[in-house]
Amino acid sequence: MSMESVAWSAVWRSSVQQQGRAFSRDTVRRVLALARERSGRLGVFVAGSVLAAVLAVATPVLAGRAVDAVTAGDGDLVVRLALLIAAVALAEAALGLGVRWLSATLGEDLILDLRRRVFDHVQRMPVAFFTRTRTGALVSRLNSDVLGAQRAFSGTLSGIVSNVVAVALTAAVMVGISWQVTALALVLLPVFVLPVRRVGRRLAALSRDAAQLNAAMTNQSTERFSAPGATLVKLFGRPEEESRAFAAAARRVRDIGVRTAMLQTVFVTALTLVSALALALVYGVGGLAAVAGQLDAGSIVTLALLLTRLYAPLTALASARTDLSSAMVSFERVFEVLDLEPAVKERPGAVPAPAGPLSVEFDGVSFAYPSATEVSLASLEDVAVLDPRGGATVLHDVSFRVEPGQVVALVGSSGAGKSTLASLVARLYDVGSGAVRLGGVDVRDLTAESVRRSVGVVTQDGHLFHESLRANLRLAAPDATDAEIHEALRRARLGELVAALPDGLDTVVGERGYRFSGGERQRLTIARLLLAHPRVVVLDEATASLDSDSEARVQEALDEALEGRTALVIAHRLSTVRGADQILVVEGGRIVERGTHAELLALGGRYAELHATQFATA
């Protein structure tokens, strides 16, 4: 490696490193546990790195002997040494490929393992976790932090071992040839190493500023390029101001890029000059020693070549602690997510939901949404300290029962607790006290899989992924055939619409389904529910986004789908509640009235008020 290459490497490494800091013993213990899982390949990897360091020292020594052989006029020895140098070069190249393959497999295997662990763990987190967390910060743990942790295995560890071996061997050989020349050559080492950290800090600061500005531009672009964001900008007529804000950030990134490039170039030029001076010192002092008969020409060549191979590992070792700290910080950030306990867990010995029609029962249920400290991390919310206060109680001693095949409607003011009741049925949260039962069994004693298969939910904002119609519908039934999908679409009154699409079921719905109207998106989510065939159905404002005509058609489909199933329906429209077997009026987290539509109207209470104000126009 040339001295210029060493300089560029030092600059790059310093610019990307984080500030070194102490890390916990628990982090080290867990990292060592990951290493033990890969101990066989890791051992071969380290051994290969050490052998590569040995071969790197062998080449300059052989080159020096070849020069001596040329000077002595020994042609046979020159040929043998040349062949040996070629053999070492071939061995070094082959070993380099093998070590790189091991490095890649170790690193990529670690990335796969950590990403899978983080992804699977995050999927087990409660909905409250996602409502508080910044999506970008969470995705960063899957990408940049996992990659930073991977560097500890594929770079830092082998680098420390191989560099220690390289420095020891190189220094030993150089001292053995001439300790005087070696000492003089190393005098310039501080001039090479010390600026690395100072310039590295400046480059790191510039990199952080550029990263923040790039993140801001990315965030602006992501929001403005989405369908709702683009619509909002167009509606308020602000494209010029948006362009100015984006251009200002882009110009600052450009200016930082110019400053960074010039700082790097000046630094590398200076270090290259230092390396040239060191080589000049070796040739000058070594040459005088050769003239005096104290050294031969081959020794001078060996010293010069070894010097170029000494600065690189010494510079790397000077930054080894920062490298290690940087990797450990990445590990800590990954472990931080993995250590966040899911609020909803499957109990040991959980059982499947009972067979046949299921009842739904709330028995003295009280509930408060979890506090930030229970479900989130400050680093994922971009705050200094999480709010330690617990959530206010939103449900108070709620008790009711929905018999198998019954339809029970929940009505009440916004924020009364209706959607919270629906989320408890699907066990998106666990109750604070009391119990929610399916078929007489507490949902906390049921397997998560059986709850998902038994309870189907359609929310007001039915979400669709940026995938095909087929893929979105098969979320509910992965093994569903196209015929079954078309039947579900027909029952959701979407059969003709999908049949008219050029790509049919292969049509990509767009981000959040924006290629379809609001009513069409909602009917797609209802088709997904019909495809799942759940025994308990929860409709949370399922027809709120539909016009009267669409609502009537979807209501027909829902009536067909709900037949023989237990249903909990939340609605603001009279058409979806007056046919219910029972209506529960929820206010302030309590059930204040219950009965049929006629009974509650005759009562003249809260339901009658809602009917007069909310339902009358319907």
Q: How is this structure best summarized?
A:
This protein has 618 residues and is of the alpha/beta class. The protein has helices spanning 3-16, 25-37, 39-72, 75-123, 127-132, 135-186, 189-225, 227-236, 239-291, 297-318, 320-338, 372-375, 378-381, 418-425, 448-454, 469-473, 482-491, 495-500, 518-532, 548-562, 597-603, 606-615, and strands spanning 360-368, 393-402, 407-411, 433-438, 441-442, 455-458, 536-540, 566-570, 582-587, 590-595. The strands form 2 sheets. It has a 6-stranded mixed sheet, with helices on both faces.
Task: Break the fold down into its secondary structure elements and pairings.
Elements: H1 3-16, H2 25-37, H3 39-72, H4 75-123, H5 127-132, H6 135-186, H7 189-225, H8 227-236, H9 239-291, H10 297-318, H11 320-338, E1 360-368, H12 372-375, H13 378-381, E2 393-402, E3 407-411, H14 418-425, E4 433-438, E5 441-442, H15 448-454, E6 455-458, H16 469-473, H17 482-491, H18 495-500, H19 518-532, E7 536-540, H20 548-562, E8 566-570, E9 582-587, E10 590-595, H21 597-603, H22 606-615
Parallel strand pairs: 3-8, 3-9, 6-7, 7-8
Antiparallel strand pairs: 1-2, 1-4, 4-5, 9-10
